Amino acid sequence: ATFPVVPIPHAIDFTPDGVFAYVTNKDSDNVVVVNTATYAVVATIPVVFRPAGVGITPDGSTAYVANELADRISVIDTATQATVGAAIAVGSRPAWLAVEPDGSHVYIPQLGSNTVTILDTATDTVTGSVTVGSAPIAVVFRPDGAFAYASNSSSNTVSVIDTTLQTVVSTIPVGAAPIRPGVTPDGAFLYVPNAADDTVSVVDTATNTVSAVLPVGASPWGVAVARAHSAPEFDQSVTNEVIFGSGNLNGGFTTDRNAGVELGLRGKVRFPVPLNEFNSNGDGTSTLDAGAHT
């Protein structure tokens, strides 16, 4: 589907439940809120000037918007779909910001000052700043929140920030003009698009070294990494001993976990039951062979 927004949509983030998308529009100085089921624009929120990055907190309550040419961060209450208070002064040319996985801080790369500003979300105040490489344009977090990665578009490096110490612990040379990277769900790899040499650098986060360089199309600007999903099924023959354990007539067990939901089986089977078992059909379903009572 395609839905109209306004000139120069720049960045997008989604509420944790996936119901709404927040899209920054640089030329119109606003953020539009899109219903992802109907593709309808349900709100248009004025911000300050030239909004760039947007990030939503893990609880979905707040969206933070970097106004690149106003050197301010707008705070949006997602319940009212309106800005809250005055925009926050942060530095020089804030770009693609990121919210820490636990929601406690926002890391804001400053294109004009070679720093990453740290904003405390409890107070919406600046509490720290980390010096990185030249012209940092984007920040992403490892899923466990232990490290943040700032891509430095003019020094062709990625700065690795320890989020506990709030300091750079490693600097990784990558390709020319790295822009907005992505981290795998397990945190093992960082994919860095290099806009000026048409490549993606693959960084091993255990060693903070480039393990591969992938040629791609012209001027790659961003990477999105899909989350892994397990199949919600149990393809294994299951006996009553597996389900209930020795001597139990009633009980339960977990077969799988998918998107945080446990899928399982509960029932009652005759005991002793030498032939009673659930036999896998190989397609995610099982058949109960009742056997003979002894």
The helix/strand order is EEEEEEEEEEEEEEEEEEEEEEHEEEE
What would you call the quaternary organization?
Answer: single chain
Cα-atom Rg, whole angstroms? 25 Å
Structural class: mainly beta
Largest sheet: 5 strands, antiparallel
Care to count the β-strands? 26
Overall 3D shape: globular
Distance between the termini: 61 Å
Helical stretch tally: 1
The fraction of residues assigned to DSSP E strands is over 45%
Mean of the pLDDT scores? 83
Percent in helix: under 10%
Provide a quick synopsis of the model.
The protein has one helix spanning 240-244; strands spanning 9-14, 20-25, 30-35, 41-46, 51-56, 62-67, 72-77, 82-83, 88-89, 98-99, 105-110, 115-120, 125-131, 136-141, 147-152, 157-162, 167-173, 182-183, 189-194, 199-204, 209-215, 238-239, 250-258, 261-268, 277-280, 286-289.
